[in-house]
Amino acid sequence: MAILTGALAEAGAGRRQVVVVSGEMGIGKTRLALEAAWEARRRGATVLYGAATEGGPLPYEPLADALSRYVAACPTTALASLLAEPAAALLRLLPEAGARLPDVRPPVSTDPETDRALLFAAGTAFLRRLAADAPVVMVLEDLHWAAVPALLFLDHIVGRLAEARLLVIATSRTEDETPELSNTVARLARQRGTTYVALGGLDEKAVGELVAASGADPGVAAARLLISRTGGNALFVRELLSHVSGDGPATAVPESVHQLVAQRLRSLPPSAAKVVRLAAVIGQEFDLRLLEQVSSAADRDDLVDDLDDACRARVVEEVGAGRYRFRLSIVHDVVYEDLGATRRARLHQQVAEAMEAAGPASALPDAAILARHLVAAGPLGDLAKAFDQTLVAGDAYLHVTAYERAAQCYSDALQILDRGRDDPARRCEALIRLGDAERRAGKARHRQTLLDAARLAEELADGDRLARAAIASSRLWSVLGDVDRERVAVLEAALAANPQPSVTRARLLALLAVELTYSPADRERRRTLRADALALARRLGDDDALTQALVARCTAIWDPDTLDERRQRITEAAGLPAVGRDRFTTIMVGLRRWDLGLEAADRDDADAGLEVADRLAEAVARPGLRWQVRVRQTTRAMILGRLEEAGELLAESHELGLRSGQPDAATVFLAQLYFLRREQGRLAELLEAVTGAAGSHPTPGWPAARADIYREAGRGDDARRTLESFMAEDYAALPFDHGWLLLHTLLADVSAGVDHAQSAAVLYERLLPYGGQVAIRPPGGTGSVDRHLGQLAVTLGRFDDAGRHFRRATALCTKLGAPGWLARTQLESSRLLLRRGRAADRPRAGRLLEETATTARRLGLRGVERDARALRDRGA
């Protein structure tokens, strides 16, 4: 309690606090949380209380429950103020508030990502306004039953309200903790002001106090027996104490809670016990009207009398007018399991028929509840109807951005087909929807799901479903250094099945061009595909297809000589209506603005694009998109000389990549770690990892990186041998693609480092047309091409050319605000001065080297500092 009291004081001072109270069922979590809430209310705080329910159909329990309870008691004038924009989107979760505020309307639904972002922002705005008047304590019970959307919502609120007068008290059962909850708790733990409290069992003294409070006096031996039987679990102790007779504890203490529940049910009148069993089929929480429809009770009064009996027996409790719930979920589970499979199935079918008679169930929670009953009815019901309703429930969850719940519904639909007569067309449809939901939720298995859907669509000769599967499976960016031939085959089949001009065909053409990014043999084909996609999208006049085609074109023509065209295309895409309307497209355009802006040394445009992408990716909360943003933020931190920050961002991006199942997460991580260690002068640490990557990835980038490691380590002979393996046909075998410029600058560093004049001469001519550009890709870069041209010119003894290149590189690095790259340029400029050897060159080089070493030490560029001091000592 002291922890919660302290957290309440901190929250009251404007430092948001989160206390997660965890323990087994009945250990005392609820009592502790409620005592803290009562104390908070006594101090003038606003208290919100919500609880999740097991298998609850609403995806945002318990937050929606907490808000609904508060809204129900909130005066209309105050409520209107709290739900003013940008909080109006909460009306999607609070329909009762909408009925009271006819002039307040939620934003028009556009797409699931936007809807989720608006909902999260609305919840944050609502709580911020509420906390402005008085500290807010929000108790969220049974978080172990909360669906993933609710956990994401909570994560968002906690992250955005760091300076609000807010205390969140969340309880969860240790034994029922899900991986999703564990991940959420881990993320919350990284937030300032988060405390985790693990409750243990009661000791002998505490159990004795419970015994005394119960009015019984079973003696010391009996108290110790209670501890041994319950482990000090407060609930079980109380349950056992409720069976203590006047002569002491029962001679046969019940062996389990199951027996306790059975004993309690036996105390009910037969009619009440029957009602309780039927209610257990409806769910842990149930509605009197639905219970009445499926009950054989003579009239409603009889039914209410039976429920009153159940309430007195503490089996159920009333939670509102006409609303009841089982007091403990374990009570519900025992009652439900004792029914027997056949009786359960028949009762589920009766409940489903009663719900259908009331009208269509296409929105939550009714859509999910009806689907659950139809599925549970099994072969005693209509499996085809169960399949269709389960898809409806999945679509309803998708509409409110509950992607994980949607995926579960579509998976349930597939299981229905497994239990009955298979229908290939229905199976294909369910697979497409499942794969799309899995992709939105960041699950790696979406790829295989959609490939399976595509193969089935091919067998069915269903071109529409084949195209949908192909489009849903594509990321609009290719796997780094690889070609996904299975995806390519699906896209080709979809194009063959959709030969007529259409928006679908334009998208398929664009996506195929992207998938072939890392296929040198398909360079010309890529150009044709991207041109066809763009031309078709323009002819059709579809903004969405045109935007996607423009983004895909930028990816597909990512060659050194197309920078101007790529920037023109992305600028055009940024001005189309689809950007701003569709969050995914807007994020992709923002990412490309960053990529191309840096390549052109336009940091303002690059930063603007990345800021938009970051803001929307956080709002949408899709791990794959957040991963793309974090990769670039890591690179940005390296460019700005913030190496410690880059290391932290790198770890975060790697976690996001793995969590979202990105197939190239490990490759991107190693690439970024290479660039980070390069800045830190610690490349030798990566020799084994880079050698392994060179063996498993047949791309020239890794052998070039290994040669760079040899250069830094002073292994000149090994570096030369690697260079000479590249020099066949004067480097002409290297593919002219997105990686060409970065690869050549790495080889330039190695050539200059080992003084390889022949290599330097070839590389100088190949790089010369691209002076003024930056050699960079999303995972990292080597900086100004002019710096590398200067290095090569020094190696060739062309000192005037070298000076000109270094001056241009210095101006570019200064413009970019890239102190690390600038320090490297100064180091190479000093090398020029010492090698040229004019009268004033040596003292000038000494001053420049001292400045370089000081900057490098401040930034943590140990390799640059080491080289600067060594060069200064040799030139002294």
Question: Keywords, please?
Answer:
single chain, 876 residues, alpha/beta, five-stranded parallel beta sheet
Summarize model confidence as the mean pLDDT: 87
Q: How many E-type strands?
A: 10
The largest sheet has its strands arranged as 2-3-4-1-5
Number of helices: 44
Describe the protein:
By secondary structure, the protein is an alpha/beta fold. The chain contains 44 helices and ten strands. The strands form three sheets. The protein has a five-stranded parallel sheet, sandwiched between helices. The chain has a three-stranded antiparallel sheet with strand order 6-8-7. It has a two-stranded antiparallel ribbon with strand order 9-10. α13 (270-282) crosses α16 (329-337), α27 (543-556) packs antiparallel against α28 and α39 packs antiparallel against α40. It starts with a helix and ends with a helix. Residues 246-254 have low confidence and may be disordered.
Topology:
Layout: H1 2-12, E1 17-23, H2 29-42, E2 46-51, H3 63-73, H4 76-82, H5 95-100, H6 112-133, E3 136-141, H7 148-160, E4 166-173, H8 179-189, E5 194-198, H9 204-213, H10 219-230, H11 234-241, H12 257-266, H13 270-282, E6 285-287, H14 288-294, H15 300-312, E7 316-320, E8 323-326, H16 329-337, H17 341-357, H18 366-377, H19 383-399, H20 403-419, H21 424-440, H22 446-459, H23 463-472, H24 485-497, H25 503-515, H26 523-540, H27 543-556, H28 563-574, H29 578-581, H30 583-599, H31 603-620, H32 623-639, H33 643-659, H34 665-680, H35 687-696, H36 701-713, H37 716-726, H38 740-753, H39 757-767, E9 774-777, E10 780-784, H40 785-795, H41 799-816, H42 819-836, H43 841-859, H44 862-875
Parallel strand pairs: 1-4, 1-5, 2-3, 3-4
Antiparallel strand pairs: 6-8, 7-8, 9-10
